[in-house]
Amino acid sequence: MKRIILSTIVVVAMTISTQVQAQKNPMVGGAAMYATKDIVDNAVNSKDHTTLVAAVKAAGLVETLKSAGPFTVFAPTNAAFDKLPAGTVATLVKPENKKTLTTILTYHVVAGKMGSKEIAAAIKAGNGKAELTTVQGGKLWAWMEGKKLMLKDEKGGTSMVTIKDVFQSNGVIHVVDTVLMPK
């Protein structure tokens, strides 16, 4: 009887520990994201970001995104990549298109750690719109639509942040629903 009670207590404690851990670490693509891990080490666990991870590897950006940073990454989901014209991703990950792929991926990265509070402050300071400079050298514009953080790229496309403030050891990720495109 004591073993059953002890086993039940251990199972309950483990369940509570797992639930507390999940609350502290945002879930992205079915996986907890840990503030102690870097951007790449977290992203590889998200089932919603397999295309992004493959693209980062094809572009040779793994070591960069594992470095100290800090970086703010607007991370497109697999569904965001699926919105691109058929065959686009397959073409971009070919070795001969590495430069173009790198340009697109680095357009999704801003130097520094900009959580939603910092972006909101920039939007407020910019009278409702913030201009962000990407590490690719292009511009993104951020604004709020109600409680939704929106982004506009240089080609006029828009993307919505669906999960904000996924803090990493070397920055922060904001999950977006559309791939952003530079000029």
TrEMBL record:
It comes from Pedobacter insulae. The keyword Signal applies. PANTHER family: FI19380P1, PERIOSTIN-RELATED. Keywords: Signal. GO terms for cellular component: extracellular space. Pfam families: Fasciclin. Residues 1-22 form the signal peptide. The keyword Repressor does not apply. Residues 36-180 form the FAS1 domain. This is Uncaracterized surface protein containing fasciclin (FAS1) repeats.
